[in-house]
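User: Could you walk me through two proteins back to back? I'd like the raw sequence and the C-alpha cells for each, with a short line separating them so I can tell where one ends and the next begins.

Assistant: Of course. Protein one, sequence then structure:
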Amino acid sequence: MITGGGLSFRFTLVVASFVLVQSHVPNTWEATPFNRMLALVQPDPIVLKYHKGPLLKGNVTVHILWYGNFTPTRRSIIVDFIQSLGSIPHTHHPSPSVFSWWRTTARYGGGPCTLTVGNQTLDRTYSLGKSLKATQLLALASKRPTTTRGHAIHVVLTSDDVAVEDFCMSRCGTHGSGRVRKRRVAFAWVGNPIAQCPGECAWPFHQPLYGPQTLPLVPPNGDVGVDGMVISLATVLAGAVTNPYGSGYFQGSAMAPLEAVSACTGIFGKGAYPGYTGNVLVDKTTGASYNAVGVHGRKFLLPAMWDPVTSTCRTLV
C-alpha cells in the first residue's frame, strides 16, 4: 500500500565546516491510501527507462546515523539486513537469500553493487529535537563526513518517537543526493512507523489503514516497526543505487518516480494482488512470514524488485 512519489526543493545548507547543496529532487517512498493502489494493477505495464545518468556500482559503503532510541536488538536486525545484501550465502544456507534478492540490481547495467556497513553513529540525545524537517534529514545524513573511497550512501534512521516532515502523510522513507566538501554523496532516510502509522508503513505486519482488514502477518524478527523499516530500507537502497542522482532508472516524472522496488509496491510473492502479499514462506516454529534468509540465519520479508531483463516484478518465492 505504498508507492513512489517526490518532494522538490533546492537549497544551500551550511553545516559545521562544509556546504551541503541539494543536487536533485529527492525520491520518496510514499504511503498511499489503499484505494489508490487498485490503479497500480490496471494501467500500462511497468517499464523503467534509463535516463543515461550514473548508477552506484562496485563497492558501496553504507554509513548509518541512528537518531533517537534504538535498542541493540533493533540495530542488529537492520545491520544484519544490510550485511546480508553483500554477503554471498554459504552453501548450507537455505535459499532464497537476501543476497539473491539484491543481485537483481546488477541487471541494471554496469555490473554488481556490493554493500558493506561503514560507520555507525548513535544520536541518543535527539540533537535536532524530536520534530525534523526534510532539510534537517539531509544535514543529519552528512553530519559526520567520511573519507570513504568509492561510493557511499549515508543513511539516517529515526526512532518511533521522532516526527519527520511528511512521514506517514506521504512517505515512509526517502533517498536523494547532495554535495559535501565538493563531493557528491547519496543519502537515505527511513523512520520507525510503529507509534505513528503502522497501518501505512508497517504493512503487512499490521492491519492496513484502508482496504480489506485481513489479518496481519507475523514479522520474521518479532518487531512490527523494525521489520516494516526493513521493507522501507530495501526500497530506498535499491532506488539509491539504480537512480542515485535522479537520472538513472525510473518510470514517470522525476518529481514522482517509480523506481526499482517502488514500481512493484505490495508484491512479496507470486499471486499478489492489492491487499494480499502473495505466497510467502512461513516459519514452522514461530509462524512468522518471510521470503529471504540473510546472515546469521536471520529471516526477512522483502518486496519484489523490477527486473530490467524480463520487465517484470521479480519475487523470490
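----
Protein two, same layout:
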Amino acid sequence: MEITRISNDSKLETFSDEVFFEIFDRLSPSDLYKTFYGLNIRFNTILNDSRMRFRDNLSLLTPKQFHSYVKNILPQIIDRLISFTFGTYDTDEYQQVNLFLHKYSIDLSLFQHLRTLVIIKMTIADFSIVQSALMHLKNLVNIRFSVDSNDVDTTSFVHINNDLLSRPKLKRVKMDMCSRTTFDNVTQLSNIEQLSIVWCQIQELTHLLQYSPCLSTLKATICGLNDVDQWTQTIRGNLNQKCSSRLNSLKLVVDSIRFDHLLILLHELRQLRSLWLLLNHHEYLDTEKWENLFQTSLLHLDQLDLTIALTKPFLSINSPNQLLMFSSPHIACTKFNTNFWLHRGWRAKLDEYDHCVRLTVSNNTLPI
C-alpha cells in the first residue's frame, strides 16, 4: 500500500491570511486570543492585523468575565469590531451598560468600523450618552436598543434626534424604549429602510415618516393624539407626497386612537401591500369604513392581519342592570365574511375567552 506523505507546505501556518480571517470570523475574540495569541509570531500578527474584523456579544458574561474582557480583550480590538452587543437581560444581577459607560468609561465613538450595535436595557440617561456617540460611527447599518423598564415611569420620555437616525449607512433600527419616544428633533432625511418603535404618539410617527424616504417596513406601537385639527391639516393630502413611496409593510399596535384618526393615516399610505393591526375598541368593528378604505386608497393591499380585541360586556357595580360596554362582535364577524372580503382572500373568525373576545380577519384565517 502506498503511503501518502503530508508535506511541510500543508501545515496550518502556511494558509493565507485571508483563510485565517475567514476562519477566525466565526469565533469570539475572547476564544481567539485565549487559544491562539502567543502561540507564535504568525498568529500574533494575524490577530493584530488591521484587516481582521471581530464580532462579539457580552450579554451572557458574568461580572468577572466582563471585567476581564474590558481590561484585556476590548482595547486590542475596539477599532476592528463590526458587530457588538452588550447589556444584560437580568439587570438585578449587575448592570452591564452602566459599568461599560461609567465605571470603565468606554467611548463608543472609538468603534469606528462598527456595523451592528445592540445595547440591552440601558437607562434613559445612558441613551443620551449613546446617541451623542453615534454621530461618529459612519459605518453603522443595524441598531437595536432597549431601555430598562425599571428606569421609566409614566412621565418618562426618550428624545430621538439626527445623531441617531441620520447615519449615512444606517438601514435597520429597532427601539424598545419602554416609554414615550419622540421625534420632534429629527430634521434631516434618513436612509433607514426598516424601523421598529415601542411606543410613540401618532403625530410623532407621522413627523418621522416625512424624513424617512427610504422606509419600506415599519412596526410601531402608537397611542394618543394631542392636537387633532393641526395634525389632520398637516398630513391630509400631504403625507403621501412626503413619506416613502417604498413603505409597503406596516405593523401597528394601536391604543387610545379613534378609528377616524387611524383612517386618516391609512388613507395616506396608498402604496401598502401588507397591513397588520392590533386594535382594542368596538368602533373598529365598522365594516363599511374598512371597505371604503380598501376600495379607495389601499388598492394594492395583499396581506391583511386585523385583530380587534374587546373586553366582554360587564355589569356596572353601581347599576347592576347597566352594561359598561356594548358591542356586537358576532354580527361584525358575519359582515367581515361577505363576498367583499372573501374575494380578497380574507376571512374572519371569532375567539371567545373568559373576559374578552378577539375578532381576527386575515389571509391565514381558516374557514369557519
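Residues 1-10 have pLDDT under 50 and may be disordered.

Let me know if you want the two compared in more detail.
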